[in-house]
Amino acid sequence: MPDSTSRPPVPFLDLKAQQARIATDLRRRLDAVLAHCQFVLGPEVAELEEALARFCGAAHCVSVSSGTDALQIAMMAEGIGLGDAVFLPAFTYTATAEVPLVLGATPVFVDVDPRTFQLDPAHLEARIAAVRAAGRLRPRMLIGVDLFGQPADWTALQAIAAREGLVSLDDCAQSFGASLHGARLGVQADVTATSFFPSKPLGAYGDGGALFTESAERAALFRSLRTHGEGTSRYEVLRTGMNGRLDTLQAAVLLSKLTVFEEELAARERIARVYDSRLGNAVAIPARVPDSVSAWAIYAILLPDAAARTRMQDGLKAAGVPSAIYYPKALHQQPAYAHAHDGAALPVSEDLATRIMALPIHPDLTDRDVERICDAVLANV
Length: 381
Ligand SMILES: *Cc1c(COP(=O)(O)O)cnc(C)c1O
Fold this sequence. Notes:
seven-stranded mixed sheet, 12 helices, alpha/beta, 41% helix, Aspartate Aminotransferase, domain 1, Aspartate Aminotransferase, domain 2, binds pyridoxal-5'-phosphate, 2 domains
């Protein structure tokens, strides 16, 4: 059914509206960088790192060039490589699995919870036991992904990491700003990596990322690795590193966006509650992780099957409501990663890929936009 009033479509993400809200402060920040011309590791970079560490209560923040590079630097710091097993969810963005492979390590895919979509701790334990029994790979690291804005079950994951002697890495790319048991994400794992890709809850105007840790040694290693493995003087090379720094201009953008970030998180939560109450009886809404606050990067609903999802997406499109599929395939089903998979069954991840669908959720949706989205979903179930 075409939208009878032929209003323009609802934006899936509205970075222009957000830019208008912070225009004056943003301009002041960018002008300051253009005036001092320290485009790499300028003063805004250290200022941002301090502000981000304070924001999430972490002892150390090291900004980097992207979320993917944050994951890579975290793994390089632990010497992850050939023969190492890195446990990670099969249902996540590609970058989580890509980095261990780039470093020569083996991703071991773990299934997720069918209601919260987060890594399933019981399956993780079974997968670690199976890898140990096979004796071919050394279990070294587990990556918990805080999928769609909600935290993974860090209480369970940290207990498993401690028991199994694994380094824990929190892939918080979608969930910076979320909290668990009253603490913001950033302090739950040995290392937390996040992304400032423009569409993430806290997004730059280009690529960016950051690492958080309580360990001063790890933080120093991250700083060295992001600048070619440099030592105390610039031309002393201590280790193989990379060019992985955050641009000063992006730090300036992020400092400006940080001034409205709390309000934006509150706006996303308000919208999620409207979706919960209006749609909860008609479609499967995302189950909340207990004692947590989501950053609501993505609001994902589940349809009964693939055909129902196609009908819903087509119906929404006709009503001017965009939707998206995160993710149409589990990672072990991707051509690039199939060879790395040991063949273990991952039924929940495979099922979610056929039925999941994301609705727009961003702080600049108006109440009328949200009503329109809900009406369109209800008209198409
Ligand atoms: C976006 C994302 C990344 C990668 O972040 P980039 O900044 O785009 O490199 C990693 N993991 C997850 C789960 C993501 O959603």
